[in-house]
Design a protein that fits this description.
Elements lengths: L2 E4 L1 H10 L6 E4 L1 H14 L3 E6 L6 H9 L3 E4 L2 H7 L9 E3 L6 H10 L3 E4 L2 H7 L7 E6 L21 H10 L4 E6 L9 H19 L7 E3 L15 H4 L1 H7 L7 E4 L3 H4 L3 E12 L5 E5 L9 H4 L6 E4 L5 E7 L8 E9 L6 E4 L20 E4 L3 H8 L1
Parallel strand pairs: 1-13, 2-17, 3-4, 3-10, 4-5, 6-7, 7-8, 8-9, 9-10, 12-14
Antiparallel strand pairs: 2-11, 11-12, 11-16, 13-16, 14-15
Helix pairs in contact: 2-3, 8-10
This protein binds pyridoxal-5'-phosphate (PLP).
The site of pyridoxal-5'-phosphate has 16 residues, from helix 11.
Length: 386
C-alpha cells in the first residue's frame, strides 16, 4: 500500500481543482496524450487500437481521436460511442471472442469489418457475414506475472490454431489475423515476445499448408499502469516485443490493444472522509465518499492498490482502515498499519485510477459514482493561441 501523507492545506488545492465537489475524478487529457505518444514511440511498427472498455469517457475518446488513434471495441454500443467523433469503422476492431448474435449483427450493420473468434461455435455465428468481414483467431498465452489472467476465459490453444483455421476455410470464412492478450497489468513483455514468435510460426505453417494467409498479428493489451510510484518506461518495457518484431515477415501488419496503460494515468480521484469511528483493536475506520462500488472496483476485480495521498495535520498514529460509502462489508480497502488521525472532511486523493474504474461504477445503495471534471488540455490551448 503506497500512502503518502501531506499537509491538509494541499488537500484543499485538490478540492479546489475539483470545483469543491467530492467525490470527483479529475480527467487530465495531457496524461492521455503523453502516454499514447510514449507507447507509440516504443512500438513504432505497431498500430495502436485503444481498448474502449477500459474507460469510455467521452473526453478521453475525443483526446485519442485528436491523436489519430484507432479503437478496439467489445460491443456495438462501444462502436456507437465512437461514431459521433467521426471515427471511421475501418479504424475499429471488434475483439470480443464471444458475441451475442444481436451484437454481431448490429456491429456488422454499423460497418465494422474486423472480428475475433476463438472456437468452432463462434465460426458458425460469423459465417452469415463471411463476405463482409475478416476474422482474427485469438490464441491463449498466459503471462505468469500478470495479475489479471485472461487466458483461461478466452483463446484457443496454439496447437488447435491450424485446425480452427482450416474449418474456417472450408466454411468460406477469411481468417487473416492472429491475436492474443497475455493478461492485464503484465510486469514484463516476455510473454508478448514468446506469443508473437509463436504466432509468426503458426502464420508460416498456415501459409505452407495452404490453410490461411495471415496478414496481421494483434499483440493485445497488458501494458502496465504505474501503481507503484515508479513511472512506466514503455521503451524498456517493450524491448522484448521489438526483439520479436524483428522476426515478423514484411507482409504482416502489427496491432496492439492498450487499455489500462492509457486510461489509468488519465484520472485522479478526489474524495473526502465522510465518517469515522474507532472500532476493535483501536483501529480507526474512515468512511470515504467513494468506494469499490464507485471508482475503486479495481481493488477487488484487479487486486490493485492505488497510490494514495492523505491530507491531514498529523497527530496520533493508529492502525486504520478505509471504507466506501455503501452498507456492504466488502466495501473496504487500504488497511494501514499506522496513520495519523484523520478528521471529517479530510481529503484523500487516489492516483492512476482511470482504468476499469468509472467504466464499472454503479449506483449501489443509491450512491452516485464520482462526477468527472475535465482539466485543461494544453494542446487545445496551444492550438487556440497559434
Ligand atoms: C480483448 C481485449 N483487448 C484489450 C484489452 C485491454 O487490456 P489492457 O487494459 O490490459 O491493456 C482487454 C482487457 O480486458 C481485452 O479483453
Amino acid at each position: 500500500m503506497l500512502t503518502t501523507i501531506r499537509p491538509r492545506s494541499e488537500g484543499d488545492l485538490w478540492l479546489a481543482q475539483a470545483g469543491g465537489i467530492s467525490p470527483a475524478l479529475l480527467f487530465n487529457p495531457n496524461r492521455v496524450r503523453e502516454t499514447w505518444r510514449a507507447l507509440q514511440r516504443a512500438l513504432p511498427q505497431v498500430t495502436l487500437y485503444y481498448a474502449v472498455k477500459s474507460n469510455p469517457y467521452h473526453s478521453l475518446l475525443a483526446t485519442l481521436v485528436d491523436e489519430g488513434a484507432a479503437f478496439d471495441v467489445a460491443s456495438a454500443p462501444e462502436i456507437q460511442a465512437l461514431l459521433p467523433f467521426g471515427v471511421p469503422t475501418n479504424r475499429m476492431i471488434h475483439t470480443h471472442p464471444i458475441k451475442t448474435e444481436h451484437d454481431l449483427a448490429t456491429s456488422v450493420q454499423l460497418g465494422v469489418t474486423s472480428f475475433v473468434v476463438d472456437n468452432l461455435d463462434e465460426l458458425w455465428k460469423v459465417a452469415p457475414y463471411r463476405h463482409d468481414i475478416t476474422i482474427m483467431l485469438r490464441l491463449a498465452f498466459v503471462a505468469p506475472d500478470a495479475p489479471i489472467d485472461l487466458s483461461r476465459k478466452f483463446g484457443a490453444q496454439p496447437e488447435d490454431a491450424l485446425h480452427i483455421m482450416s474449418v474456417a476455410k472450408q466454411m468460406g470464412i477469411t481468417v487473416d489475423g492472429l491475436c492474443f492478450h497475455v493478461g492485464s497489468q503484465a510486469q514484463s513483455a516476455e510473454t508478448h515476445r514468446i506469443a508473437l514468435l509463436k504466432c509468426i510460426e503458426i502464420a508460416r505453417d498456415a501459409k505452407n499448408q495452404g490453410i490461411a494467409d495471415i496478414e496481421r498479428i494483434d499483440i493485445g493489451g497488458g501494458f502496465p499502469a504505474n501503481y507503484s510510484n515508479r513511472p512506466v518506461d514503455f521503451d524498456t518495457f517493450c524491448a522484448p516485443i521489438r526483439e520479436a518484431i524483428a522476426e515478423v515477415p514484411d507482409h504482416i501488419r502489427l496491432m496492439a490493444e492498450p487499455g489500462r496503460a492509457i486510461s489509468a494515468p488519465s484520472m485522479t480521484l478526489v474524495s473526502r472522509v465522510i465518517g469515522r469511528s474507532k472500532r476493535q483493536d483501536d483501529t480507526w475506520w474512515y468512511y470515504l465518499d467513494d468506494g469499490v462500488y464507485g471508482a475503486q472496483s479495481g481493488r477487488i476485480f484487479d487486486h490493485i492498490n492505488y497510490p494514495m495521498t492523505v491530507f491531514t495535520e498529523g497527530g496520533e498514529l493508529t492502525p486504520a482502515v478505509f471504507a466506501g460509502p455503501t452498507c456492504d462489508s466488502v466495501d473496504r480497502f487500504g488497511d494501514q498499519e499506522s496513520l495519523p488521525e484523520l478528521s471529517l472532511g479530510d481529503v484523500i486523493v487516489i492516483h492512476e485510477i482511470g482504468a476499469y474504474s468509472i467504466a464499472t461504477a454503479c449506483h449501489f445503495n443509491g450512491v452516485a459514482p464520482p462526477v468527472i471534471i475535465d482539466l485543461e488540455d494544453t494542446s487545445e490551448v496551444q492550438r487556440r493561441q497559434a
